[in-house]
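Wed. Picked up where I left off yesterday with Peptide methionine sulfoxide reductase MsrA. The coffee machine is broken again, so keeping this brief.
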Amino acid sequence: MCSGQTGHAEAVRIVFDPKIISYAKLLELFWENHDPAQGDRQGNDIGSQYRSAIYVLTPQQQAEALTSEARFQKAMKEANDSREITTEISAAKPFYYAEDEHQQYLYKNPHGYCGLGGIGVCLPPQL
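Structure written out below (tokens, as returned):
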């Protein structure tokens, strides 16, 4: 995986109860808390395994993800960020858990590097 040649992405699997948090809210958190326009990287981590991606389970999730992407792209342009979103949105494939050293990384390494951060753009409410 570290070689960036496997086609895999470092990802998290999110299991949620839509009675507690909506898929739309998860998408909002996704867009606002990383840079979706960096291509195959996040911060100092470079390679296709670090790409921005949303892996969907249903056609409904696919539609919501694509709609939210368009809204966030528009918000970026309105904030004078002319970059194009490079986030991959596709059907989920089998999920493999990372080795133990990568589980709960920031808990185990409280001062560890985590280059995630938003770009200062908010996802506008859907009308």
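Quick read: The domain at 1-93 is CATH 3.30.1060.10 (Peptide Methionine Sulfoxide Reductase; Chain A).
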